[in-house]
Amino acid sequence: MLELYYGIGTCAVASHIALEEAGAQYKAHRVDMKANQQNSPEYLAINPKGRVPALVTDQGVLTETPAILAYIAQIFPKANLAPLSDPFAFGQVQAFNSYLCSGVHISHSHGGRGARWATEDSSLQDMKRKVPENMRAGIAMIEQNMLRGPWVMGDAYTVCDPYLFTVGTWAKGDGVDLDAFPKVAAHRERMKQRPAVQRVMDQQKA
Amino acid sequence: MLELYYGIGTCAVASHIALEEAGAQYKAHRVDMKANQQNSPEYLAINPKGRVPALVTDQGVLTETPAILAYIAQIFPKANLAPLSDPFAFGQVQAFNSYLCSGVHISHSHGGRGARWATEDSSLQDMKRKVPENMRAGIAMIEQNMLRGPWVMGDAYTVCDPYLFTVGTWAKGDGVDLDAFPKVAAHRERMKQRPAVQRVMDQQKA
Lengths: 206, 206
Prior knowledge:
homodimer, four-stranded mixed sheet, 2 domains
């Protein structure tokens, strides 16, 4: 059985929703990020990078959100979570997810995790001040050039959708008003109506 | 015909090598990063994100290195550049490439592109000072937990290999001596023997 390691409010929410959408049998294990459990010896034995998500499978452990999302789409093909038989369309799914992980997520991380990249308090404050601008630019790029509607890739719901929803959850705390981005905001409301999303959000609160 | 937009010394080298390994018919267009050509109206019409690589296909434009690498592997299956029929093994390829794009590449970018995330000169200097430590940690993670040898995924050469080679090219300039990482250093020498790599490195110099 699949086992997902996740942290509250992290990008692991995307993989969690994808598992629910796929109708997967899985166990979810919460990693207590506030207690730095992701760097405990027990968790580092699962993911030596000390990050969530990690997906334990019968064949071994997978990490990194874009990899886990594509894997879930591939092993549950009946759920139609990615255009698996069309390399270009699949490439677009991957490009979107890669932009979120190496672009928008990194912009977000400079708010709370700036110490990864600088040491002095003045630098960390400087980084924090720039977060709203960078998050706004990333969401504007999605609004103007990526999100086709009703779902990210158009008529078909894919693994891009829970990932965008997850990143959008950070917007308000990062000083971005999603009302300025009507397509992204409407996508968010559409996502909240999905039972899979509701089940995961309930688990996040529990 | 495929058309690759690349910049000298950028992560686009990985996609360039993959195209050569695949025996693809393609045109390569150099984007003059020093002249900020990636932000010219002409290039932004190709990739509104203003980054390289971009791969123009008959179906449209693909961006983001992990997406382009998987696409090349998929459309040239005879080149055996990824374990396409094994979702878990393919997921491992993707996880490796995702770690490079959202981890090691980001560490590198804080040396020369710190202004993306902070404004004050003291912050940019602080970020630059931390680059060697972060690059060393990323390469140590690859050395200890990822690179199986002789290739990243073991006996099979995959699209992970040109990507690791490309990121390794940055190590010296980022203050990291690869001699401290014997598996990564040996992988690098092995890569330099490949004709596809030599052809791309010659084009980079030209």
